[in-house]
């Protein structure tokens, strides 16, 4: 009964979407406020109905109602409660339901908090948002209905893929989707702006917090996925430049560029045409990510069994929104008014450089991801593009970006003084150069470029600190004055500095772990001791253990450093009951200098086991960096300027779109 | 500077970056891509020894032999041809006889393939696409059907 209610709510949400798509936009066109006013209640109703649908599916999972095909295929009654709940989005149908739920959440947020938006803009935004939801609801209802029933009812479900039964992965999809779908707001605003033929600082002031929030979610989502891959997949790596990873990374990159260009648009009303294009492209890349992951056209180490028929449907959705958006852009963008002018060496110029480098880098990732697909369709050759390609293209583009990064916030708007900025960055520069020598002294082995990359990270962090100190007049005013100024700096300034410092921290982590990771594979007998990075690892044998829905063999490893015992690690090989599938759980010892990472391999005969040992120096800094970036975003989001809401538009009222003359 | 010249500076700057990126992409694509082959491809085409390739197919039933330490030897088959693969390391959890697999490495004398990577997968029923296509071409497997040699059910599990 509850399941039918959920299904019914889903169908109703679809119908509400139809109304929300047509009526407000029509009202905006003919200038009828009553019609435009339908957008808000419709958006809220749509959100309410989808909550109902989602709750119904969750209920079916929690009570293990195997009469629902989706629950039968992806759940099992012995699964712990948290994984029964996360199982709701741990499969195709449920995850698409989560997708539209988040889409509706953003639409509802516009309806609830958008009272200070111009009425026509709000109506058009809600219409566009509804059209996206409509497409995906249709997709769910026609090809992937999570509420389909099964007859006869099976006694037990098939269970969730065991590697998805994991705390980090339980929350990885919701964050990722909040990010992907959050960019739909930027898209809807861009389309609405194009329809009205007018965008201004107020538009940017609205788009920026949404983009920022989506970007923060996506940052955490990708970071969680990478962390999960690191400890769960047992290969000691954290990023593989795999198509599925790239699918989430490209919208993140484009979103990062969008955040920065929206700043220029908000403060200086410049880069309008470019910002709109970037808003369309960012969501297009999100849609493409959904397509690549859902359709299985690319072979990926993260791929799961998929149904190709669905791919075609998503491809159609993608083509419509990307093609439609770009066509509207080509038609209407020339009519947008030009904004303020600026010298190439200025804050705006710095942000343009940021945009040029990041979008180009996005382009190289896109080429590397789609090239195999293109080549195969041309001459049938099957190729794979892996890490070497991305290291050779993406990394060189990041170097000038990181070098230039500390200058940006120190340059003035319109016209910047590079010499003054250099003076302010003197100390950061010296510290960074000194760090090259220090790193060479500690790590003389390994690639010679690595110390320079570490210095780059130090430079970015130093630059962020220098900016704060400069704004607080450190070295000029007395201490009390500096502290007072530090307290009174706007939160957005802190947000920028913190997020940039996070980038620096991540760069250091990435460099250290890529350059100086050590790895050995060996066969160990009980009592045997291996050495790695100053640790002595003694294998004392294996023991069986029973889990709630699996059996496992754990390898007992005593870890010591010289005389002192450090810890005991228990890497294991698990055999899950439903579905019957094997996984490895790594044993990880976390220390300041890096992670000791132990994986139990196969039994090699007479008590010996193959064992893989890794030492990953400073690897935690990668995820720490993303957390710092998230915190920076949160600071910026809580800035008064954004909290109070966009100032009302006072000047000119342009009732109808002005065509290009 | 006039508006026009300022824009000129910005656009030429962007073009320089773009040109550099295109150069990097072309260079990287010419030497860091890896071709996929099936065992039959290897007999039909002459792939030079030492060139990095991906080899995919089904793990031949009964072919897995463990040697000294972590050495493993197994055969990859597309049912027409068969190639012996040597690998040192820990095999992925889902490596199983009769299942699809993709390995990366290079040919080394005769019909021996030295693999340094055996690609893992996340899902019991996931068939690497290249392997699936190769098997479909030979009419051995249809999409949606369980992989040959194993009769596992087919839930639509995935993530991300």
Description:
The complex is a heterodimer of chains A (661) and B (160). By secondary structure, chain A is an alpha+beta fold. Chain A folds into 4 domains: 1-165, Up-down Bundle (Four Helix Bundle (Hemerythrin (Met), subunit A)); 166-398, no CATH class; 425-517 and 620-628, no CATH class; 518-574 and 581-617. Chain A is 62% helix and 12% strand. Chain A has 21 helices and 11 strands. Chain A has helices at residues 2-30, 33-36, 39-62, 69-74, 81-86, 92-113, 119-143, 167-196, 201-232, 243-268, 272-295, 308-332, 347-379, 387-404, 418-424, 426-442, 450-471, 479-488, 491-516, 620-637, 640-643; strands at residues 383-385, 518-524, 529-532, 535-546, 550-561, 564-569, 572-576, 581-585, 587-590, 594-605, 608-617. In chain A, the strands form 2 sheets. In chain A, strands 3, 4, 5, 6, 7 and 8 form a 6-stranded antiparallel beta sheet that branches. In chain A, strands 2-11-10-9 form a 4-stranded antiparallel beta sheet. In chain A, strand 9 (587-590) and strand 10 (594-605) form a beta hairpin. In chain A, helix 8 packs across helix 10. The radius of gyration of chain A is 27 Å and the shape is globular. The N and C termini of chain A lie far apart (60 Å). Residues 644-661 of chain A have low confidence and may be disordered. Chain B is 28% helix and 28% strand. Chain B starts with a helix and ends in a 23-residue tail after the last helix. Chain B is built from 3 helices and 7 strands, in the order H-E-H-E-E-E-E-E-E-H. Chain B folds into 2 domains: 1-32; 35-137, Nucleic acid-binding proteins (OB fold (Dihydrolipoamide Acetyltransferase, E2P), Beta Barrel), CATH 2.40.50. Mean pLDDT of chain B is 76; it is low at 142-160. The radius of gyration of chain B is 22 Å and the shape is elongated. Chain B is α+β, with helices and mostly antiparallel strands and 160 residues long. A 5-stranded mixed barrel of chain B has the order 2-4-5-7-6. Chains A and B meet through helix 6, helix 8, helix 10, helix 13 and strand 1 of A and helix 1, strand 1 and helix 3 of B. Strand 1 (383-385) of chain A pairs antiparallel with strand 1 of chain B.
